[in-house]
Amino acid sequence: MAKYEVTLKGSMEEWTKRIQEGILSGSVSASLEDGSDFLSPDGQTRCCVRVFERFSWAGSNRVSLNVTLFQTEPGVVLCSAITSGGSQAKFYKINTIGEETFLDCLREIVHP
Questions:
Q1: 24, 102 in Cβ contact below 8 A?
Q2: How many alpha carbons lie under 13 Å from residue 62 in its C-beta half-sphere?
Q3: Cβ-based neighbours of 79, under 8 Å, separated by 6 or more
Q4: Is the Cα dihedral 52, 3, 39, 17 positive or negative?
């Protein structure tokens, strides 16, 4: 498992679209598995969750990337991304290169 957290400047819609398009175009095997969007009753707080998967050549398996965007004030979006599934071991993690590589794709999108 690998984790990356960053504070982004801009709108929730802008970042959701940019991240989704960037992840899907970054790998031929990448797919959007599911997502959820929440808006508080007062319209101030928003949360967007996206779950992506792709094939990892390094581990010969599928790797997932969960991206959560959270906004409590205009122009500031908190981003938390966590990968999983990149290990072939039964009892402990080895060979997590695929997870780190998937996370690097997101890093390049938010900090080109």
A1: no
A2: 11
A3: 4, 5, 6, 7, 8, 15, 19, 67, 68, 69, 70, 110
A4: negative
Share of the chain above pLDDT 90, in %: 65
The yes-or-no verdict on residue 87 having pLDDT over 70 is no
pLDDT tens per residue across span 19-65: 999 999 988 999 999 999 999 999 889 999 999 999 876 556 788 99
CATH superfamily of 2-110: Kinase associated domain 1, KA1 (3.30.310.80)
Residue 6 is encoded by which pair of tokens? 């960053």
pLDDT at 58: 59
> Whole-angstrom Cα distance, residue 84 to residue 107?
16
E strand spans, 1-112: 2-9, 31-39, 46-56, 61-73, 76-84
Which residue ranges make up each domain of the chain? 2-110
